Amino acid sequence: MTQTTPKATTPKAPAGKPKTLKEGYIPPKERLFAPGHRGCAGCGELLAARLVIEAAGPNTIIANNTGCLEVTTTPYPESSWGVPWIHSLFENAAAVASGIEAALIAQGRKEGTNIIAQGGDGSTVDIGLGLISGMMERGHDILYVCYDNEAYMNTGIQRSGATPFCAATTTSPAGKSSFGNMRPKKPMPEIMAAHGIPYSATASAAYPRDLQKKVKKALSIKGPKYIHVHVPCPTGWYTDSVDTIKVGRLAVETGLFPLYEIENGVVTNVMKPKKRLPVEDYLKTQARFKHLFSKEGGAEVVRQIQAIADKNAQRLGLDPK
Amino acid sequence: MADKLNDGAVTEPSSTVITKTGAWRSQRPVVDNEKCIKCYICIDLCPEGAISALPEKKGVQVDYDYCKGCGICASECPQKAYKMVPEEK
Amino acid sequence: MKMPRKTVMEGSMAVAEAVKLCRPQVISAYPITPQTHIVEDLSQMVADGELKSEFVNVESEFAAASVVLGASATGARAYTATTSQGLFLMYEVLWNMAGSRYPINLTCANRAVSAPINIWNDQQDSVSIRDAGWIQLYCEDAQETHDFQPIAFKVAENPKVRLPIMTMMDGYVLTHTYEPVEIMDQELVDSYLPPYKPVVRLDTAHPVTLGAFAQPNTYHEIRYMLNRALMGSKSVIASAFKEFNETFGRDYSPFMEEYRAEDADVLVLSLGSVCGTIKDAVDELRNEGQKVGLVKLTMHRPLPKAELRKALDRASVVAVVEKDISLGQEGIVATDVKSAFAGHDGPAVLSYVAGLGGRDVPVRDVRRVFSEAAAWKGKKAPDDPFWLALNTGIIPEVR
User: Fold this and answer.
1) Long-range contacts of C130-134 (CB under 8 A, 24+ apart)
2) Cα–Cα distances in angstroms (integers) from residue A81 to residues A315, B16, C60, in the given order
3) Nearest CA of chain C to the CA of B75: how many Å?
4) Is residue C193 domain-resident?
């Protein structure tokens, strides 16, 4: 077939009303997450956010922290959100969501309404941690979703508590005397599970159907839930937008970002890679790790990163017996 | 664009549709639906939600009003049914 | 006709009783002295089934404010209370509430601000929030703290206003002392304050996006509209007080109260419970033939400039006695009073910083203010504020 470039036309809406894009074209104005947002081409976070709200459905209210997701989807007077959505401050979506739940209960209209509080890794593992802990401790019927691109991306790629070991960011750069961020990732899914909540899980933008399944599962459970989604960021990880999914998949296949659930304190449904890949395969794809392959002593650091992956594999049983 | 502001700057839902981010593209995905096996992975992986299924399982279609040309669909399609083509002026 | 229930009660309980009558749907607060009795009382009312409200115990004041913000955005009538450090921990959220136009009612049990840490009364906390876009009302006694609650909700929730509102009561002085209070009748409160009807709310049937990201082309105007609403709330506040009088038979002047001020030559302007003491001093001095009076400022924001000019113009000297200071400047309310007279002929305005950190302000010290102030007739007021009853004996010399 010859490659003629089709004209830029808007698809026509079919006669029957499709509920998902896999059934057919849905006019953008009717979407739960409308296009036209200002996310970078190939943004893993906005992809994941779309998947989350499409899995949750229209009976959902969202409280959203400040960050890339909020800023790119709500430039006044536009909004991508087709569900009720509120942004207050950088760090307080969990508390705002708690108030939303209390109000719905007081008004007698909580039944059948999902409440999601969401934010990036910075607002979740750092500045908002206390408020999320409070929300989990109080046992609200709310799902918290963290979109983890491993740095404060909206402010220009600064180090967060979720920045992985030896990744370069602007506030933990690689330099003559540094290999970048020298601290491991804060174990947020485990911290959340330690609150005694019924469900805590990891997911990835590179595994969209797994992510949506986990969202649906979480929302079917009453009580506080947590999903930590790995979302590659081409801008912050210095990759090409075309490689977003490939990079995300490598994070999982190397064991650096394993996919699993913690249900009532017990690890379940660990996704075991067919063959666990060496961490170099992942690290080499992103310029935020390039200093590991050019600086003296880099090989030793790569070994330390491999040890992190090996420890994950041991802890979760990632490798075949 | 709203003419007048309102108290509290409340925003209408799904209103980013007026911004046609397709204008950002330097390349566009072109799909050969004869190769398409209707796995719909591309639909799942488009950050814009710009890909949707054609009726009667005929394949998929791209909404070029919004496609930013990131290339994920072409990269991930198991059948290599997409080609990324430079955007015409 | 139902006999009004008048009983001696703790000031905190007067607030809690009033809040209960207003039927708040969500309450969230964090313990901090001297506000704590208010929320303890409300908790007990909820636990006993007297008050049907979702009471959310939180991990900080920042969370408490965020919880009531979320509740208000969902269309629920929401209440919180705090003071001092707690109010300051809420700082970000307070600005966010006003900017987003959520009509939350907050009681501030005025307390001094750290450092050093001090749990007793002054007004530094609430006056330091005056710029955030909240309506701010100061109460003199327990009856006012009780009565101002339905007034606060009514004003805040008015579709022409849609702003959060703060009512102040002096910590310990009003929260922990006992006064006779006439409890409002529930039916009358219900008629005065119907259920909250939000203009917009979070509702899956009618999705909206709240909390916009406004760029330079609109932020300026959005803030203008906020200020316009705050200034415009004056007429709504006046009507609410008028209607309160018609319903409950207690007549409060919404912006300020004049006490023996008609022919006063020296006036003191002040806020809160210390006005009770100042009234006593005025009575003594009047008995001695002195033409003195008090203007008690009830509403600090929006600032009633024209009304201040009208009330104070008759005097030669006005001494503003307040329990706060803008460090590096003078008393905050004094600055505001001076601004009301900028460009107008008016009295000399003196700034008195009094009673910080719970220091008592007795009648004898108030009398001293009146006699000192009289000496400034016809003179230019000094740049620096006066510190009332400063114990210079314990202050070392500047090296």
Assistant:
1) C130/C300, C130/C301, C130/C332, C132/C91, C132/C94, C132/C95, C132/C98, C133/C95, C133/C98, C133/C99, C133/C163, C133/C164, C133/C226, C133/C227, C133/C230, C134/C94, C134/C97, C134/C98, C134/C106, C134/C163, C134/C164, C134/C165, C134/C166, C134/C301
2) 39, 9, 30
3) 34
4) yes
Residues of A in contact with B27 (CB under 8 A): none
Q: How many whole angstroms separate alpha carbon C43 and alpha carbon C16?
A: 9
The number of folded domains in chain C is 2
The DSSP code sequence of B13-46 is: TTGGGGS-GGGG-SEEEEE-TTT-----HHHHH-
> What is the DSSP code string of C18-35?
HHHHT--SEEEE---TTT
Are A64 and A93 contacting, i.e. CB atoms less than 8 angstroms apart? yes
ipTM comes to 0.96
Q: What is the rounded CA–CA span in Å between residue B21 and residue B12?
A: 19
Does C225 contact B11 at a Cβ distance shorter than 8 Å?
Answer: no
Burial annotation C287-300 (CB, 10 A radius, 16+ → b, else e)? eeebbbbbbbbbbb
d(CA A187, CA C140) in angstroms, rounded, equals: 52
Give chain B's residues under pLDDT 70. 1-2, 89
Q: Domain B32-86: which topology?
A: Alpha-Beta Plaits (3.30.70)
- Whole-angstrom distance, CA of residue A33 vs CA of residue A85: 11
Q: How far apart are CA C319 and CA C330, in angstroms?
A: 12
The number of beta carbons lying within 10 Å of the beta carbon of residue A286 is 21
d(CA A2, CA C140): 85
| Interface touch A96/C69, C-beta < 8 Å | yes
Enumerate the β-bridge partners of residue A116: A62, A143
In a domain, A321, yes or no: no
- Asked if C213 and C221 count as a contact pair (C-beta separation under 8 A), the reply is no
Chain C residues with CB-CB distance to B13 below 8 A = 207-209
Q: Is the peptide bond before C164 cis (omega within 30 degrees of 0)?
A: no
Cα separation, A228 vs A211, in Å, equals 10
Q: Is A310 exposed, middle or buried (0-12, 13-18, 19+ CB in 10 A)?
A: middle
Boundaries of domain holding A288: 30-316
- pLDDT per 10-residue tile (average), chain C, 399 residues: 82 98 98 97 97 98 98 98 98 98 98 97 98 98 98 98 98 98 98 97 97 95 98 98 98 97 97 98 98 98 98 97 98 98 95 97 98 94 95 95
Residues C146, C49 share a domain: yes
Distance from the Cα of C197 to chain B's closest Cα (Å) equals 15
CA distance A71 to chain C (A): 6
Q: Which amino acid is at A207?
A: Y
How many separate domains does chain A show?
1
By three-state DSSP, how is residue C213 classified?
strand
> Residue A64, SS3?
strand
Q: Three-state SS for C172?
A: coil
Q: For chain B, positions 1-60, list CB contacts with chain C under 8 A.
A: 5, 7-13
C74 touches chain B (CB under 8 A): no
- Return the residue of B nearest to A204 by Cα: B45
Which CATH number characterizes residue C289's domain? 3.40.50.920
